[in-house]
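Entry details:
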Amino acid sequence: CVAVAVSVRETAIGAAFTTYAGAQTSALSTRATALNAAWSAPSTTPALLRAAVNVAWKAYNTTHRAIVKTHNLATKTAWSSFKTSSKACKIQEGSKDLPRESAGEGQDMTR
């Protein structure tokens, strides 16, 4: 029973990370394209260049925060479901019967 709950949890965490990595790769690619466009604009003034670079970074930071938030929520949901499932198996989360590695909360990507 707990083995199934662990498997479901680990699959969900893996899927969340795969989604995170893909979204982050896309965000970095978008940022690179925007920065390249800003720096290679033919007739730009320093003020226009600075503005374009700032827009690129602001857009990336906004996207990055959303990606991290989504990833943390998915991971938290996986752990919450695991706790519910493991309790149904009559093993209390954090007990001596549950190995320490399975009693954690996962990692917060914002740290």
In short: The mean pLDDT is 87. Residues 46-88 form the longest helix (43 residues).
